[in-house]
Design brief:
Residues 31-50 bind DNA. 71% of the residues lie in helices and 0% in strands. The chain has helices spanning 7-25, 32-38, 43-49, 53-73, 83-92, 99-115, 122-145, 155-175, 182-195.
């Protein structure tokens, strides 16, 4: 009998090979040939799934975004849980605090740089930015709904500030992990979130 191939699993395998090449060798070396070699596929097999490098990069970045969203959506708040702890753990889903999330952030930063020179990636970049922004808006909104947040907060400005803090911390940690350690990242986020609360 011919072997049955799960095409979605194969695309995920290719996307993960793309992440590996980007993290180890940089996005400029994420060629179709190199990714196929890393995925242990022929170039022809890879092109069966992705007709261009941009299409492959888009799928790889969407997979990063989808995995973050899945983790966030699987979280449930219980009444005996500290609201501040609950929302901070949610924000940590998008920060490089472990190997998996570090890879996701490194890949995302490399992709973001590629967007500057490849306009075909703009739509996905904007889509993921909007998802991230909405997720951080939900963080502030949850604190407000639970009557944990200070009165009179400007929701839009606070979301902008939190988004900038999260992006900045991720970049500082990836570029200078010896100076801006994971512990500093954790304490900085908790300090900021506490400043929003009564």
């Amino acid at each position: 009998m011919p072997k049955i191939i799960d095409h979605h699993k194969r695309k995920i395998l290719i996307a993960e090979a793309t992440w590996k090449v980007i993290v180890e060798e940089g996005i400029e070396n994420a060629t179709v040939r190199k990714i196929a070699q890393t995925a242990e596929l022929s170039t022809g097999s890879l092109r069966h799934y992705f007709s261009s490098q941009s299409e492959l990069l888009c799928f790889s970045m969407e997979l990063v975004s989808d995995r973050v969203i899945q983790r966030l959506e699987s979280r449930e708040f219980s009444e005996d849980q500290d609201p501040l702890e609950f929302v901070s753990e949610g924000v940590f889903e998008v920060l490089p605090i472990d190997k998996e999330r570090k890879i996701e952030m490194e890949v995302w930063l490399a992709f973001s740089a590629k967007v500057l020179v490849d306009s075909t990636l703009n739509e996905l970049s904007n889509k993921v930015y909007d998802h991230m922004h909405q997720g951080l808006k939900n963080v502030i909104h949850v604190l407000q709904l639970l009557q944990y947040a200070k009165d009179g907060l400007d929701l839009d400005l606070e979301v902008n500030r939190l988004h900038a803090i999260v992006d900045g911390m991720a970049m500082h940690h990836l570029l200078n992990p010896g100076h801006f350690t994971q512990d500093k990242m954790t304490r900085t986020l908790n300090y900021h979130l506490k400043s929003l609360c009564k």
